[in-house]
Amino acid sequence: MNLLLALTDPIYNGGIDLTVFLIILGKVLFVFVLLLLSVLMYIWFMRKVIARLQNRVGPTRAGPFGLLQTLADGIKLFFKEQSIPNSADRRIFKLAPYLAITPAFLAFLIVPFGGEVTIAGHRTFLQGAELPFGILWLLCMSGIGLYGVMLAGWSSGSKYPLLGGVRASAQLLSYEAAFGLAIVGVLVQANTLSTRAIVEQQGWTGIESIFNGDWYWLPAVVALVIFVMAAIAETNHPPFDMVEAEQELTGGFLTEYTGIRFAIFMMTEFMNLITMSAIAVTLFFGGPSGPGLGFLAPNGWFNAWVMPMFWFFFKVLLLLFATVWVRASLPRLRYDQLMSFGWKFLIEIAFLWVMVSAVVVVGKEEGWAMYVVLPAAVVGALIVGLILYLSVPKKRELVEEIR
Amino acid sequence: MGLLQGFAVTLRQVGKGTVTEHFPKEKRPITARRHGRHVLNRYEDGMEKCIGCELCAGVCPAKCIYVRGADNPPDAPVSPGERYGFVYEINYLRCIHCDMCVEACPTEAITETKLFEFSFTNREDAIYTKNELLVGDDGRARRQPWELWLGHEDDDTSEWMRATAPSGQAAFENVVAWSGELGFGVRAPEEGQTRVVPVAELHDDHGHDDHDDHNGHDDHDDHNGHDDHNHGGVDG
Asked: pLDDT tens digits for A110-148?
């Protein structure tokens, strides 16, 4: 056990005493508060940006620039009466929001949001927990989060929530596959599951490290595209917010939820989006790595503490802006489009990409001639893709089968 | 490609600015014919104009007006005539501000102001009774505690017009015939309307079907093009 701990965060090297415990507690509390605050800020940010993209001004009344609008909404929801349908399974109905939000908090623990710092004589990473199997933790948590949504729909005891819950479980399961394969696209490059190790491999050596393949977005560019699409679908955000398509399902699994339980579900969704953006930054954009301020000491407190955090949040903010832009621009997919997009397109592409990048990585290690291996891998992938494409039934054939 | 075009479309809007009206801070100009909340007018001597005839209640398509008339007490008459509006209530949760009550009123007792900045927190506040509707001694609408008056819409309390011929007589078509007794908001005639009839003259003419002095086709040379068909109607 001690060996496993020593492999991870250097804070555990000297055993666990009270200081270490307090530092860890502080880090966990920081992550908790950070997520809550960033949800508040993200909702404000989203409403402001989406308003600008639609010639509106967004919230302006509560606080300066409407900054406190989300807080006001939250307070309102907190004090609202909560109703539970007679036909609901009361215990599960009450449990479901917490089943959804707990994994959302836990998933963020593995995200490295800062560099390596010294607190009270202990070296430690700025991240909730450095797990040797970090990425698997993320996949576990997003899998458990599905239960919250599914049980919410099932326990509401009414039709639309049930349909919404079924849709949610189908959609999340389908995109989990593409999501996982997109992550594997990075993992074969990084050769590790630890998020800290992944960001340390994507160090900053100058502006060229963005484009020379140090950051994994370039060697895994197809994986990045698939990751973004699958992550948006995983978090039920437009254009994949099929789960709560209000024109079809009123509110999906949220229909019967009111007050603070509703607020918890909404928070969960935005928290998941923030976590996904943070994971994308970790996997593809070097996490907290970025240039420090040259005129300060390279290992001074500012360059060790503030600059990595600044770069991390800056990158996350850029990605969050992209999600808002997507939300403002794209209409919602139809459910069958969503499913066939996930199963017939995303998973295949992700799978073939993993194959090609595996060949490239192994070829590099073994010293194979790249100009032979790379075309061979691509051609092989294309052949497999063609076979897959031919074996997937076409819409015309499906129609004839039904006839 | 259509997908990417969508992104360009939304991003382009950022440069175009916003179209939002910042209502409480900035107000758009009120249009000339806005229908706001009602007032019950009074004559200059303070007598109420309402005679409790219930025509407004009868014509109201939303059935939001409730009127009960009563005989004027002989020693302290409320209105100049025989009867007066004893109860007068308008339910603003139902009113659609169509102004048909104003058109129906034979004495110009009920008119609409341009006040629109009022809201309620309970249903009782939404029912305006005579207490709230009657104008003050200066002829202006009286502000209620729950009403928000940001502009000066109360300057125009008796500015109103009938959609059809005044007093329902064909000979008066396009003659501006509102009285504006208390001096607030007599609006200049619009295009197609001939002239403002002085109050005294209007009262003289009342009830004369064959009167044709008020066609006024030599008064308004600036509206020649639009007045042609009106002239024909009046002269014939």
From this structure: 898 888 888 877 788 888 888 888 889 998 888 888 888
Per-residue b or e along B83-111, where b marks 16 or more CB atoms closer than 10 Å to that residue's CB: bbbeebbbbbeebebebbbbbbbebbbbb
Q: Is A53 in contact with B22 (Cβ distance < 8 A)?
A: no
Whether the CB-CB separation of B7 and A327 falls below 8 Å is answered with no
Q: Which residues sit opposite B65 in a β-bridge?
A: B90
Q: Does the N-terminal peptide bond of residue A112 adopt cis geometry, omega within 30 degrees of 0? A: no
Segments making up each domain of chain B, as ranges: 30-160, 163-236
CA angle B2, B4, B7 (to 5 degrees): 115
Residue-number span of the structural domain to which A95 is assigned = 2-333
CB contact at 8 A, A349 and A226: yes
**Structure tokens, A266:** 């909404």
| CA distance to A121, A185, A389, B84, per residue, from A386 (Å) | 58, 20, 5, 90
CB of B9 less than 8 A from some CB of A: yes
Mutating which of B9, B10, B16 best tests the A interface, going by the most A Cβ atoms within 10 A?
A: B10
Total domain count for chain A? 1
Q: Which of A139-148, A320-329, B161-170 is the least confident region?
A: B161-170
What's the CATH fold of domain B30-160?
A: Alpha-Beta Plaits (3.30.70)
Nearest CA in chain B to A58: B20
Contact A155, A93 (CB under 8 A): yes
The complex scores an ipTM of 0.71
